[in-house]
Amino acid sequence: MTDLDAVLTANRTFYQAFALRNPDAMDRLWAREAAVSCIHPGWPPLLDRAVIMGSWRNILHAPSALAMHCGGSQGRVYGTTALVLCEEIMEETVFAATNLFVLEQGQWRMVHHQATPIAVPTARPASPPRPQHLH
Amino acid sequence: MTDLDAVLTANRTFYQAFALRNPDAMDRLWAREAAVSCIHPGWPPLLDRAVIMGSWRNILHAPSALAMHCGGSQGRVYGTTALVLCEEIMEETVFAATNLFVLEQGQWRMVHHQATPIAVPTARPASPPRPQHLH
User: Would the CB atoms of B128 and A51 count as touching at under 8 Å?
Assistant: First the structure.
C-alpha cells in the first residue's frame, strides 16, 4: 500500500467513526504524540486533545446528529505529513474539509480537522466564483 | 531563528501580502514544487496553482475588499511541514484559518489555506459550544 493509499484509508476511518458514532474509534485515529487541533464549523479552534475528544463525544452522541458521508477525497503526501481534502455531505449541506495526518509509530494519525460549509457541491464551476468582499 | 519562528514569519508574510494587496508577494509565498490547495470561505476547494493565484488576484484587486488583520497565531511544526492556526478579523467578522506550509528550497512556503467564519472571536468560551446538529 502506498503512503497515499494509507492516508486515504485513514481518512475513511475518520468518516466511519463518524457514521458509526464511535468515539473510541475517533480517539484511536487522532495522534497521541503530535500536537492536535480541530476547527468545527463556526467554532473557534480547539487546541487541546482532551477538549477535542470531548467535542467529538458530544457530537457523536447528540440525538440530533445527522447522517454524513464523504466524497471527492484528494490526498497529498508531504513526507511524513499528509493532507486530505474532501467534501462532507449532510442532507442539503456540503462542507469542504481539510484533514491533516502525520505518520506516528507507523500509522497515519489525524492532527488537524477543519470543515467549512460551501455553496457549491461536487459539480464544480468552470471558474471560481468572484468574491465580493473577501477572502 | 527556530523553525517555529520562521513559520510564523511566513504566516505574517501571507497577511502582509493581503494587507498590501500584493499578488506578487502572495505568489512568492506559495509552494512551486509541492501540490497546493485553497478553500476560500464558501467556495469548493481549488486544487490548481494557477487557479489559486488567479483567485488571489481577484480578491486582492476587488474594489470592495475590506481591511483584515490576523491575531492569535498558533504554530505547530511537524518535521518539514508546519501548521499555523490563526484568526482573521475583518470588521465584524472573524474567520478561523488553517495555513499549512512545507519547507521547500530552505523556505517555508504555503501549500494550503482554509478560512471559516466563526461565531466566537478572540475571547474564548470556558468550554466549547455544544453543537446542535453536527460536526
Answer: yes
H-helix or E-strand containing B9? helix B3-19
Q: Any idea which residue has 453536527 for its cell?
A: B134
Q: ipTM of the assembly? A: 0.87
- Distance CA(B67)–CA(B62), nearest Å, equals 12
pLDDT, tens digit, 9 for 90 and up, residues A69-120? 899 999 999 999 999 999 999 888 899 999 999 999 999 999 999 998 998 5
Q: In angstroms, what separates the C-alpha of A135 from chain B's closest C-alpha? A: 6
Q: Tally the C-alpha atoms within 13 A of residue A120's C-alpha that lie toward its C-beta.
A: 14
Inter-chain contact A34–B133, Cβ cutoff 8 Å?
no
**Is the entire prediction scored with pTM above 0.80?**
yes
Q: HEC profile for B33-86? A: CCCCEEECCCCCCECCHHHHHHHHHHHHHCCCCCCCEEEEEEEEEECCEEEEEE
Q: Which residue has the cell 474509534?
A: A25
